[in-house]
Write the structure tokens for this entry.
Amino acid sequence: MTTGTEQTLLVTKLRDRFGDRILDTRVFKDEVTHLVDSNALVTVCQFVKTEPGLQMDYLVDVIGVDHFTAAPRFEVVYHLYSIPNRHRLRLKVKLTGEEPIPTVTGIWPAADWPEREAYDMYGIRFEGHPNLQRIYMAPDWEGFPLRKDYPLKGYRDEYNPFGQEREEDF
Amino acid sequence: MTESQTLVDTEKITLHLGPQHPSAHGLLHLVVELQGEKVIRVEPDIGYLHRGTEKIAENLLYHQFVPYTDRLDYLSAMSNNLGYVMAVEKLLDIDLPERVQYIRVIAAELSRIAGHLLCVGAWGMDLGAMSILLYAMREREMILDIFELMCGARMTLSYMRIGGVRYDFTAECAQACLDLVRIMPARIDEYERILTGNRVWLKRNKGIGIISAEEAVTIGLSGPILRASGVKWDIRKSNPYLVYDRIDFDMVTGAAGDCFDRYMVRIEEMRQCLRIIDQCVKAMPDGAFHVDDPWLVPPPHEETYDNMENLIHHFKYVSHGFKVPAGETYVAIESPKGELGVYIVSDGSEKPFRLKLRMPTFMNLQSLNQMCQGGYLADVVAVLSSLDPVFGECDK
């Protein structure tokens, strides 16, 4: 668990450095979350990785979230961990789904597969990713399965007789 | 050296290893680029076992998802149960009775031994040592018997429930655990006699698949593989959960970051698990084995059909579930394979809005190319076994 001083460190260091490019900061259940402007994502990531006192040297995961019907629709969540300082930090970026967001594979090579997974499941495009292909689904799969408007049983075709009928006009 | 230099001129070929291959530990497809026997690049192709677990979770009540977690890392189901229920409990903000915490630590450590045993056994078999698998399975059987005493199941356990565990930890279970603690150290010594000094084992593992501490951190390795590179990071020590902070055990680290160190870390970790189990069984207090909250805990099975109230209670629990306060949380535990994380976004309803499973195998497998490059084709098998991938969890 993060202690009080670490928490203020995680909150203030970023807010002081980036000001209004940190759109929102929340502390919930001792977990610090910063909502970051997608243009500033790479600079923020570079900062939290190298800044002494933060040293987020380990990328835990990159996660897509679909808030369907809300606008902006998608969220990309970065979970970071600092092995020397033992604290966690969550960064978030909101996007509509059409525009690409910059990849963080240049900062943490570990982002390679999780970013591919987010692309595979939500269709979020990461600009500058070395190999942005589907990872779980077949290369010729249509649609993005974890989107909220994708049916649980999938779409009906010759392999899936129980799937939902695909609407023609959208 | 001169011999290998003359071999470099051979034509580059691409070899497809798997998806059905006995040493691929499940459905893994590797595209290996070779020049002679030298590996130029390995590209893992995963997803053959993808079941859409996260999509399923979004459509299930919170308590209905517990059995699905068994089927992720099916070799150590308790750890998956634990990661998931801890995340939901964090959102629910409930304090667990002491006894539950001790039971959970014992269960998680038993499944860690079970996982490591299968890893070492299958690894030995992949490299041509048949007997070690049979010995490892013999001891794994003892652990599965303990699981059977605890919850009646051997593989898909669903023992941990939101708010506690399903059945009490009986005196019989405690005795079985103490027996294991007594018998097991000699058996681990036996594995070491078979493998650790074995010349073939050393040749196949020492200096193979080396990854430095710095590389290991940036590529996202965790668990025994990361510690074998000398990084001191064990979530049980650095961010203790349950009662790990009260228990005396050592964090095991390696130095070279090769396959052999990964093997040694796992062997030593099994010994530490036994220490933890021993302490927990002896320190476990009496008390309830779940929280006292009728929303979260169904009535005991044997009393369910006795009276109307219990039947209604059971029906409400099964069909309606319970609401979880809105918010988001991430909980990470040290599973046998590494950091197992569960990220839940709750919208305040009975079903998770988004559930993301951070699976250690998935992240660890990324490093395969880095570890295999420049080695021989036969080393790919050793490196893969040292990563201990389980595709139930990798492919979700």
Observations:
- Chain A has three helices and seven strands.
